[in-house]
Design goal:
By secondary structure, the chain is mostly beta strands. The chain has one helix and nine strands; from the N terminus they run βββββββββα. The strands form three sheets. Strands 3-4-5-6 form a four-stranded antiparallel beta sheet, with no helix packed on it. The protein has a three-stranded antiparallel beta sheet with strand order 7-8-9, with no helix packed on it. The chain starts with a strand and ends with a helix.
């Protein structure tokens, strides 16, 4: 969901994500949003802003619940609840493959 904050809180756009979206992290430096989708064992990367759009999808460990971003390096950390796994992704490197 995308909201305007001023002059009042207002829903302006929805971006459909199947697979029970759960965890979210924002990389303000690169203007990216990362959303875990546990039902699909997937992480989705979106462009942040008024018009979110798909950048990439990544396979993850089973049941990815939590996601965090290191803005200095751009690396993304995802936890897989089922196996107690911490997955490290480098989205910029992954997209150039």
């Amino acid at each position: 969901l995308v909201y305007h904050l001023r002059p009042r809180l207002e829903l302006i756009r929805r971006y459909p994500l199947p697979g029970s979206p759960y965890g979210i992290a924002i990389d303000n430096r690169r203007h990216r949003i990362f959303v875990t989708q546990p039902a699909r064992n997937q992480l989705t990367e979106l462009i942040a802003g008024g018009r979110p759009s798909l950048v990439a999808r990544y396979a993850t460990a089973r049941q990815p619940n939590t996601v965090a971003v290191d803005e200095a390096s751009g690396r993304v950390f995802v936890t897989g609840k089922v196996d107690g796994v911490l997955q490290l992704l480098d989205p910029e490197r992954e997209r150039t493959r």
